[in-house]
Amino acid sequence: MLESQARAEVASASRTVVLCFLAALCEGIDIQAAGVAANGIIQELHPGKQQLSLFFTASTLGLFFGAGIGGSLSDRIGRKKTLVGSVAVFGVFSLLTPWAGSMGGLIWARLLAGFGLGGTLPNLISLGSESAAAGKGSASVTLIYSGMPLGGALASLVTLLVAPDQWRWIFVVGGVAPLIVAPLIALLLPESAAFRDLQVKADQVSADTGLLAVMREGRAGRTVLLWCSFFLALMTLYLFLNWLPTLLIDSGLTKSQTATGMIGFNLGGWLGAILIGAYLETRQRQRGVLVTFIGLPLLLLLLAFGPKQPAIVTLVVFVLGAAVLAAQSTLYSYAPLCYPTRIRGTGVGFAVAAGRFGSIAGPLLGGLLMVSGGSPSQVLTGLLPLVVIGSVCAVILAWRPPPTTGG
């Protein structure tokens, strides 16, 4: 009986990881669709750089509101229901994006798609953490999160297969995929066992929840540190996702070389997320964290001032992607450990929402640096102080991870 129950639990956890990975894959396609479609949009609609920055920022603004609302909602109605609704929302509005005939329409479509994207991520993290076997939570979360850079690589691959004037196909793929995955999640994904246990104790579900709860019981310092780390990490990530293709082209790379570089960035991110997840479950955890957060600013300098041969640049971008996404994965794996089950969705959701300020600031900062005439090297070095501060915050947070708490 016990053996049969154990097999059922393993099967349930595996199914959760697979379905959440597919949802993360779809989210990765959609999040990076704007950046990889930018060249075609520029040629067709001729937006200014400030208008293009608003286009890049729109989805992240929607992500900010979606993350806070989606995380809080999951603590009330469940992780699964919120996840299904969020995936469906960003699928629908991604599919509507190609029909927008102006930059204004594109910006609104991206804003509404971002709302669904924001509600998806906190639930993927909570489900991955709560459904994993003891001691495997970090590996499950990072494996799920690795679907995002892999999805970004698929989005970049589309640009190699279609001409710039066919940029709408990127959003078609980004809309159809989640609308296929959402019904699969509704039919096959088990609800978090930890959340179901709290439903039995309804008084615990309703007590001490909301934004103020994440600051109580000694959690304030850790929460603020988590928010700062998310802000700076996501600022860096989203500047790269949105402006790196343009920076590479301005550095002299061709369209195909730039697309190859972005595929490398995302594949490196996928590999980095997998590797850091394995490290976080071993005694080498601290070493992995240090290598990641020390290597990140060094790689930034290498990309800014290193050789400009396409092969070398592609290799540096690959390793940089691994470092950036490993850093992000580390934060996502630690975020659920900071909060008890009854407020985990809220805590993770507001951490993700705090990071969305960075998501908004990153593309805007890149746009300001580009508008002011900054070279690719100046744009990259302008990020350096903020990357160093974010690395210090993340190392402090990760050095002594809090114990996983119960209800």
- Number of helix segments? 15
Number of strands: 0
Question: What structural class do helix, strand and pairing data support?
Answer: mainly alpha
CATH topology: Growth Hormone, Chain: A
- Level-2 CATH architecture: Up-down Bundle
Radius of gyration: 20 Å
Oligomer: single chain
The shape, in one word, is globular
The CATH class is Mainly Alpha
Number of domains: 1
In percent terms, what proportion of residues is strand?
under 5%
Give the topology string: H per helix, E per strand. HHHHHHHHHHHHHHH
Poorly predicted ranges: none
CATH homologous superfamily label: MFS general substrate transporter like domains
Mean pLDDT: 81
Terminal residue distance: 27 Å
Main sheet attributes: strand count, strand direction, barrel closure: none
Helical proportion?
over 70%
Structure description:
With 407 residues, this protein is an all-alpha fold. The protein has a single domain (9-399), classed as MFS general substrate transporter like domains (Growth Hormone, Chain: A, Up-down Bundle), CATH 1.20.1250. The protein is 82% helix and 0% strand. The chain is built from 15 helices and no strands. The protein has helices spanning 2-45, 49-77, 79-96, 103-131, 137-145, 147-161, 168-188, 193-200, 202-206, 220-250, 255-280, 285-305, 310-334, 344-371, 376-399. The longest helix has 44 residues, at 2-45. The model has no long low-confidence stretch (mean pLDDT 81).
